[in-house]
Amino acid sequence: MKDTKTLFFLFIIGLLVLGFDLSQAQSPKVVTSATQELTLGWDQVATDFPSLGGWTLFIRATSGGSKESQITIPYTGGTGPFTSTQTFTVTGEAGSVVRKYFVLDAVSKNGIHSDVSNEVFYDFQIPFGNVTVPLNLTVKVKVLVK
After folding, report:
1. Domain count, the chain
2. How many other CB atoms sit within 10 Å of the CB of residue 8?
3. Residue 93: inside a domain, yes or no?
4. % of the chain residues with pLDDT over 90
5. CA gap 49, 5 in Å, rounded
6. Residue 71 to residue 141: CA distance in whole angstroms
7. Would residue 132 count as lying in a domain?
8. Averaged over 73-94, what is the pLDDT?
9. N or C: which end of the chain has fewer CB within 10 A?
10. Is 34 a member of any domain?
11. The domain that contains 115 carries what CATH number?
């Protein structure tokens, strides 16, 4: 019922930092990063607002897995939509795809957590690092005279 729920837009991953390590055993460490925006959305029952303290976004490495990290989103009043910009880091090998799973719970002003929401996922493309200009370039030319 749309009249009893308010859409909760979560711009929580607004500035997502993607980092990866291109290091090998004997080479220097190269780290690159990129920024990406991800928007997640859930519905919150409007009758919860008087008791609502906020939400917790849980980030998982596997579907249904343990909570790898979490982000706390305070409820600041009103009936929505609610936005919050948060940052977290996703790491992986250059050129790989890293899938992250997200669930959200509501937290009462008493600190009691609800059950978690449905699970959603997003595939993050880990970028390749920048290359540098070659330091030395040698070109050998063979000239044929006829």
Report:
1. 1
2. 21
3. yes
4. 40
5. 10
6. 60
7. no
8. 88
9. C
10. yes
11. 2.60.40
